Structures are given as structure tokens and as C-alpha cells.
Fold this protein.
Amino acid sequence: MMKKSETKIIEAGFSVFSANPTATLADVAKEAGVGRATLHRHYAGREDLMAALAMVAMQELDDAIEAATKDTPSYTEALRLSLVAIIPLADRQMFLANEPLDHVPEVLEAYTQQLDETAEAVEASKEEGGFDAAVPTAWIVQAIETLTYAAWTVVRDGDATPEEAAALAWRTLQSGLTGGAK
Amino acid sequence: MMKKSETKIIEAGFSVFSANPTATLADVAKEAGVGRATLHRHYAGREDLMAALAMVAMQELDDAIEAATKDTPSYTEALRLSLVAIIPLADRQMFLANEPLDHVPEVLEAYTQQLDETAEAVEASKEEGGFDAAVPTAWIVQAIETLTYAAWTVVRDGDATPEEAAALAWRTLQSGLTGGAK
DNA sequence: CAAAAATGAGACATATATGTCTCATGATGA
DNA sequence: TCATCATGAGACATATATGTCTCATTTTTG
């Protein structure tokens, strides 16, 4: 069964634009194995495609977090599970972080809301003793986001499995990387 | 004293392209407060400008690290000082990381060499006990790079001073962010 | 099988970024 | 002061990405 054109185009969009943000729609169509006209039939233009990519990325992230964090015993554990769940989607995360979302207020709102929810979870985790209350929440949120990206890159480069990378990222957040010898 | 046009154009390039990778040369010229023709007088075209930006970024990073790490007592301390020194230049770092450097082999080589040197410093630091030898060097290098970026963003967003951000990034690397309660 | 929908290929027109050139102006330096 | 140089503004030509359309073919659906 062949994938739907839309699916192929969206996937190619993430692939091509993450490699080269100035790539043309022809590049995307080619990568998707689809005629250029077909791309235009589904997405009116570059802006439309970008908006669609942003919405898909947002949705996938939301779904992954939602699925990972329901029925969790603590906020700290919820954060850890979110991190694990998001690692395979870090390219989506970075797409959202790098792309100017001004033209897609719907996504912009969802994105900031997601950051806010992470911040709330971090605050709650502080009360559980999961994080040092003296450390600014803004820093913890940022560290989670960037270490997720770090985990994704080492997986991409073949330097670790997703599980290993997730463990390393969480360890870094929790207890750092200090060695035993002194 | 007015800045030289070249300086203004380079600075505008970092600013504009980091906000929007698909920005036009006209956008850059406008941001630089310079005529579009002047931009073309200094840089033949988009590729030339990108290459120039990459080389400037590379040079600035090299210089900053060089200045920060000469006469340091240990590799671990050298890494810490490098991190501190690079934070104000994290936008340069990200420019290099995000831009396809295939067309600028000179910079590509310097970039990979810089990563190699960081890896070597991490290995050496492991022997000093600065980092856990059981943790993959690739992860530590990646964590350093992304936490540097994290530090830069919180500074940019006004959530911390450069000194605070540097301290947070280093603490995260060394001992994590765990709170007291268990 | 037959109708309907989706697609690929390509022609075509358009918009826009890019690159070149000229000329008048202002700055710089001898 | 005078000469040189860099610049801004704008005209202009070109290249390229974009967007639309048609038509034959394939795929899907009923």
C-alpha cells in the first residue's frame, strides 16, 4: 500500500527543510517522489506547506506527551516520560523552534502553551524534590528542551540508541556527568 | 565613528538569518542600514555572504576559546572557561550548526576540528575526574554544545545574566539540577 | 467493468530575488 | 582645496521559484 501523497509530502518537508531551510518546493516534491503539481494541489504554496508542517509537528508532540504522561505517579516522572517520548520527535521540536511561526497564530499559541505546561510541571516537580527550587524554572525548561535535542542528534549520528540517549539526557538533568575520581 | 559597511552587513546577516533563514539579501541590507548595491559590492551573492558569515563565526569562536583557555590549570577548567566564553557567541555557534556548510569546505574542516578538540578535552577531563568515564564522550560534547545554546537563550530572553546562565549550564553538566528532597 | 478521482509530466505565465550598471552625493585623505 | 573612494538610489536585465493550467495515464471507488 502506497502512502498518501500528503503524508509523503509532509515527511519530505521535515526531511528537506531541516537539512536546508531555503530548499525549494521542487526539492520537497522530488524528495516525496511526487509531481510538483501534486504538491500544489494539496498545499497552495510555501506558506501553506510550512503552516501544515507546523501543525503536524505540534499535533504529534501533543499526542506523544499526552500518551506518555497519563496515569503517572508524579510530575517528575511525567517529565522524564515526556522527555523519552519526545526524543524521536526532536526534529519536529526543532522545526517549531526555528521556524518563524508569526503567520500561524494557532500553532504559536499551542507552542507557548506547551512551554507553559512544561514550566508548570517543573514547578510541581520542584515541590516533589525532583528539581532544586533554587534553580530558575526557565533554565530547567530550556535545559530539558535542548538536552532532548542533544539526545536526538546522538541517536541520529549513531552514537547511541534512543534508550541510551534518553537515559543520558535524564541523568544529565538529574545528577550531571561528574566522574568519581578526584 | 560609523562602523564599516562590511561589519554592519555581517552583523545584520547574523541577526536577520537567525530570525528567518529564508530572508532576502534586501532584508539584510535594510537591517544593516546599507544600500543593496553596497552589499553586492562587498559580497558577490548570497553564497558569498553565507560563506563570509560562516568564516567570521568560526574565527570568533576560535579566538574566544583560544583566549579563554590559554594558561589553564586543567582540562576541566578549560572546558568550563570555554563554555563561559562562548555563551555570548552561541548565535554564531547555532549559525554554523544549522547552515549547510558543504559549500565552504574550509569552514567545515575547522568546525569538525573544533568539535574534535572539544572531544579531546573531554577525554582528558575524564582522566582528571571531571567527567564520568562511563559516559560517552559524544554525549558530553553534545550536551556542552546544546547547554551553551540554552544559556544563550535564557540570557536573550532576559531570564538570567550571562554569568548566571554560565553557572547554571556548568552546574547542570557537573551535578545536575536535582533538589534536596528524595 | 465503468465512473470518478488523483496523479505525473510538461507548458506556460508571473512574481520575486538576484546581479549589474550608472550617476549623483558625501566622506575621506593627501 | 582637490582627488579619490565608498556609498545610496534607482534603472535594468536575468535567473529562478512559484503558481496555474491542460492532458494523458494510473489508481481508486462503486
Remarks:
- The radius of gyration of chain A is 18 Å.
- Residues 2, 24-26, 36-37, 40, 44-46 of chain A lie near DNA strand D (CB under 10 Å from a C1').
